[in-house]
Prior knowledge:
By secondary structure, the chain is of the alpha+beta class. It has helices at residues 16-19, 25-34, 77-92; strands spanning 3-8, 41-46, 58-61, 67-70, 111-115.
Amino acid sequence: xxxxxxxxxxxxxxxxxxxxxxxxxxxxxxxxxxxxxxxxxxxxxxxxxxxxxxxxxxxxxxxxxxxxxxxxxxxxxxxxxxxxxxxxxxxxxxxxxxxxxxxxxxxxxxxxxxxxxxxxxxx
Length: 123
Protein backbone atom coordinates (compact mmCIF):
# COMPACT_ATOMS: atom_id res chain seq x y z
CA UNK A 1 0.00 0.00 0.00
CA UNK A 2 1.26 3.47 -0.85
CA UNK A 3 2.76 5.68 1.83
CA UNK A 4 2.95 9.41 1.21
CA UNK A 5 5.70 11.74 2.36
CA UNK A 6 4.21 15.21 2.58
CA UNK A 7 7.02 17.76 2.69
CA UNK A 8 6.65 21.35 3.83
CA UNK A 9 8.46 23.39 1.19
CA UNK A 10 8.19 26.69 3.07
CA UNK A 11 10.10 25.65 6.22
CA UNK A 12 12.91 27.98 7.21
CA UNK A 13 15.23 26.93 10.00
CA UNK A 14 16.71 29.42 12.45
CA UNK A 15 19.22 31.65 10.69
CA UNK A 16 17.74 31.18 7.23
CA UNK A 17 17.11 34.89 6.65
CA UNK A 18 20.69 35.75 7.56
CA UNK A 19 22.09 32.96 5.36
CA UNK A 20 21.32 34.78 2.12
CA UNK A 21 19.80 31.61 0.68
CA UNK A 22 17.36 32.12 -2.17
CA UNK A 23 15.51 28.85 -1.61
CA UNK A 24 13.86 27.75 1.64
CA UNK A 25 15.29 24.91 3.72
CA UNK A 26 12.02 23.05 3.16
CA UNK A 27 12.35 23.31 -0.62
CA UNK A 28 15.92 21.99 -0.41
CA UNK A 29 14.79 19.05 1.73
CA UNK A 30 11.82 18.43 -0.60
CA UNK A 31 14.10 18.13 -3.63
CA UNK A 32 16.39 15.73 -1.79
CA UNK A 33 13.50 13.55 -0.58
CA UNK A 34 11.95 13.55 -4.06
CA UNK A 35 15.22 12.20 -5.45
CA UNK A 36 15.03 9.20 -3.07
CA UNK A 37 12.96 6.52 -4.78
CA UNK A 38 11.47 3.71 -2.69
CA UNK A 39 8.84 1.12 -3.65
CA UNK A 40 5.31 2.08 -2.55
CA UNK A 41 6.40 5.59 -1.47
CA UNK A 42 5.26 8.81 -3.11
CA UNK A 43 6.01 12.43 -2.32
CA UNK A 44 4.12 15.68 -2.45
CA UNK A 45 4.89 19.23 -1.39
CA UNK A 46 2.67 21.54 0.63
CA UNK A 47 3.17 25.13 1.64
CA UNK A 48 3.19 24.97 5.43
CA UNK A 49 2.52 22.11 7.82
CA UNK A 50 2.27 24.69 10.64
CA UNK A 51 5.25 23.27 12.51
CA UNK A 52 7.41 26.35 12.10
CA UNK A 53 9.25 25.89 15.39
CA UNK A 54 10.18 22.37 14.26
CA UNK A 55 11.30 23.06 10.64
CA UNK A 56 12.04 21.17 8.42
CA UNK A 57 8.81 19.15 8.65
CA UNK A 58 7.36 16.11 6.89
CA UNK A 59 4.29 13.95 7.38
CA UNK A 60 4.28 10.19 6.76
CA UNK A 61 0.78 8.95 5.88
CA UNK A 62 -0.99 5.96 4.39
CA UNK A 63 -4.64 5.03 4.09
CA UNK A 64 -5.87 3.17 7.16
CA UNK A 65 -2.52 3.52 8.96
CA UNK A 66 -0.99 5.50 11.77
CA UNK A 67 0.36 8.83 10.50
CA UNK A 68 3.39 10.68 11.80
CA UNK A 69 4.74 14.22 11.73
CA UNK A 70 8.51 14.53 11.91
CA UNK A 71 10.58 17.68 12.09
CA UNK A 72 13.79 19.41 13.10
CA UNK A 73 15.64 18.01 10.08
CA UNK A 74 18.63 19.57 8.39
CA UNK A 75 18.02 19.81 4.66
CA UNK A 76 20.72 17.29 3.77
CA UNK A 77 21.06 13.96 1.95
CA UNK A 78 21.32 11.92 5.18
CA UNK A 79 17.98 13.23 6.44
CA UNK A 80 16.32 12.73 3.05
CA UNK A 81 17.48 9.11 2.81
CA UNK A 82 16.35 8.35 6.37
CA UNK A 83 12.91 9.90 5.76
CA UNK A 84 12.49 7.83 2.59
CA UNK A 85 13.73 4.67 4.35
CA UNK A 86 11.28 5.18 7.21
CA UNK A 87 8.43 5.79 4.75
CA UNK A 88 9.28 2.49 3.00
CA UNK A 89 9.06 0.69 6.36
CA UNK A 90 5.74 2.43 7.00
CA UNK A 91 4.49 1.29 3.59
CA UNK A 92 5.46 -2.32 4.36
CA UNK A 93 3.65 -2.26 7.73
CA UNK A 94 -0.02 -3.26 7.91
CA UNK A 95 -0.71 -0.63 10.60
CA UNK A 96 1.94 1.99 9.86
CA UNK A 97 3.73 1.18 13.10
CA UNK A 98 7.43 0.43 12.66
CA UNK A 99 9.38 -1.16 15.53
CA UNK A 100 11.88 1.29 17.04
CA UNK A 101 14.80 -1.06 16.38
CA UNK A 102 14.07 -0.74 12.62
CA UNK A 103 13.99 3.06 12.53
CA UNK A 104 16.82 4.64 10.54
CA UNK A 105 19.14 6.40 13.00
CA UNK A 106 18.64 9.77 11.32
CA UNK A 107 14.88 9.85 12.12
CA UNK A 108 15.27 9.03 15.81
CA UNK A 109 14.49 12.11 17.88
CA UNK A 110 12.59 13.75 15.03
CA UNK A 111 9.06 12.48 15.76
CA UNK A 112 6.65 15.25 16.76
CA UNK A 113 3.17 13.68 16.57
CA UNK A 114 1.41 10.42 15.83
CA UNK A 115 -2.17 10.32 14.58
CA UNK A 116 -4.48 7.31 14.57
CA UNK A 117 -6.01 6.38 11.24
CA UNK A 118 -9.35 7.94 10.42
CA UNK A 119 -12.30 5.70 11.19
CA UNK A 120 -13.98 3.88 8.35
CA UNK A 121 -16.86 5.99 7.03
CA UNK A 122 -19.22 3.09 7.83
CA UNK A 123 -18.31 3.16 11.54
